[in-house]
Each structure stands twice: as C-alpha cells, then as structure tokens.
Specification:
Two copies of one chain form a homodimer.
Chain A lengths: L11 E3 L8 E3 L6 E2 L4 E10 L2 E7 L8 E2 L2 E3 L6 H13 L1 E14 L4 E13 L7 E7 L12 H16 L5 E4 L8
Parallel strand pairs in A: 4-9, 8-11
Antiparallel strand pairs in A: 1-2, 2-3, 4-5, 4-7, 5-6, 5-10, 8-9
C-alpha cells in the first residue's frame, strides 16, 4: 500500500498511539488503513459416500484437485459463501451444511472454513475456474494431486471422523517451519 | 474507496469479466481492490464456573459488557488472536482453547469466532479499551447490558451447552429484518 484510498495522498507505515502493530496511515486525512486476514469458505460435498473435488483451471495450483472453495464476500454469511463457491466451481447444489473444519494459514493471512454438505444436484460443465470435477470415494482421493494443505487437512479429518461416527469440528494450522500453536 | 492504494489514481466500481460482483478497479495500473469480511476472535474465559466479561471503554457500545474479542491480525492464527485480545482487554491469560461458536454479521461484513478457555491468571487494571472487568456466574450475566448480539449468542449457547454437558460448536447469524440462512 502506497497511497490513501480515501484522499490519494501517500501513506506511511506508522505506529498509532495505543495500537500494537504498525498500520498504513494517511497523515493528510488521518485514515488508518487496517489490513486483516481473509476468509475462504467451501464445502465437502458428499453424494453416495463420495466427495466432490474440482480440478483447478486457474493459478495458483492449476491442474490440481481441490475442495470447492473461495473468498467470502462482503454481505455474505459463511454458509452462503460456501454454497455459492461450490456452485460457481462445480455447478453443484448443496444443502444441509455443517461446520467441519477451520484451517489457519497465518503466513498468507488466510483462514479456511469448510462445511460438510449433501450434494443435491450436480450438472458439471467446465468453466473458467474448474476444468474437471468428479466424485471420489475415500480410497480414490488424489492425495498427491491436492491443491492446498487445507484440502488435505479437511479430507483427512473428514474421513477419520466418518470412521469414528462423530460429528466434530477441527481446527488446524499450516506448519510453516514447524510452526505450532 | 476513491483512489488506488498502489498508484494513487482514481478507482471505479467496475464489473470485472468473469467476476460475480463489482469491484473497485484501477484502470491505470489494472489493480482490482477486493474487499472482504473481517474476523473477530475472542475467548469465553472461565474460572471457577464464572465467565470473564469486560466493560467497554471505547465506542461502539461504550459502557456495555462484552466477551473479550477483537480483529484478527495478519500473521496470526485464530487461537493466537483470541489469546492476544483476551490479554489486551482484561490482562487475562488463557489456555486450553476450544472452538465454541461462529457468528455471522453479514450486514457489517464481520464473522465472530469464539473459543472457550480456562482463565489461568488475571490481574486487571483499567486500560484504554476496558474500564472494568469481572467474573460472572451464569445467573449474574448482565444480559441487558451486553455490547453485541454475538456476545448474547455465544453466552446463551455456552450456558445451554454446559447444562447438556456437550462440547458443541455453534454457528449463528444476526437476524437483520428476520434474515435467516
């Protein structure tokens, strides 16, 4: 950030009195420009014991498989965002959402929130975000071809949870240089 | 948003090809300025069957009681943010965090994430954010003096969950004009 989005003057990274971290600050109009993590929402959409995954048609990780998910938009609930993203990426209509996992990626300022859901209908045609979509049984999950560590975390927990017949919500963090909470 | 934070030229609210909503866009440097919901994290800190609440020394809702919570910062996990906010507002040190609830406020682009936690130590002195802090037993909760609906939601669920001896995670949404998911 170099310029104030309110008045167009230059901003500086400044220590605001009473604040704990430095912020981009405009001395001209006195606006503090906060920057905070973003939420990514998606669905582990299940049908007949199989899970819907989408092959990415866009960077990053083009050609890799992922749980349909994307950035939560202003004005949305996390459930609404997860339903929308699943539809946008796969044409899949889901229902019966249940919170399944939260995964921290603090080094890229992201928090993933996944739901389990029932895949009600599904009429996939390739689109700008997804080149291919398919239902995978637990022993067919393409573990080495997953796009993101959040996918691996959510799928592993989902499968272990199914086995134990529980209905847990899992919280995890990307292990950057063995970073642990 | 009026100016591009990258190059200082004016931005316009534009329909980007392939996107679903309009974005602030700089035609000069071609930057798309995404705006997304923010995460607020906090702790239902418990000690001897009582819950820690803080009386707000700042707007909004100055003088009202709230669960210690605040904006998640870049670089933090949700657990780290909840621990930090609890300490900043109350001087309380917490441990043993468990995800408790998520509360959507889509009309103000916020998602609250609360944890239950054990209050390990607590040495409160008034600070810039909090004028008073106290432990409340379930029948002492100042329901009519709570700062935010997310506080009410989390506390109600916490107390009902304790009664049922469950360890659930709750998801709720602020009911704006009977808005329901």
């Amino acid at each position: 950030m170099k310029f104030c989005s309110q008045c167009g003057n230059t901003v500086t990274l400044s220590q605001i009195p009473g604040d704990t971290v430095r912020r981009f600050y405009c001395a001209h109009c006195e606006t503090v420009h906060y920057q905070n993590p973003k939420i990514i929402v998606g669905c582990l959409a299940e049908k007949d014991g199989k899970i819907l995954l989408c092959k990415r048609a866009i960077e990053p990780r083009i050609g890799k498989w992922g749980i349909p998910a994307g950035y939560l938009e202003n004005g949305e609930t996390i459930e609404e965002g997860a339903v929308r993203e699943t539809f946008e990426e796969s044409n899949g209509v889901v229902a019966g959402l249940k919170l399944q996992s939260i995964y921290n990626l603090p080094h890229v300022n992201q928090v993933y929130i996944y739901f389990t859901a029932k895949l009600v209908s599904w009429d996939f045609t390739p689109n700008s975000e997804t080149s291919e979509a398919a239902l995978f049984s637990p022993d067919e999950i393409p573990w080495d071809e997953l796009a993101f560590t959040s996918n691996k975390f959510a799928l592993e927990k989902f499968l272990s949870d199914e086995k134990s017949e529980n209905d847990n919500v899992f919280v995890g963090t990307y292990d950057l240089n063995h970073r642990q909470f």
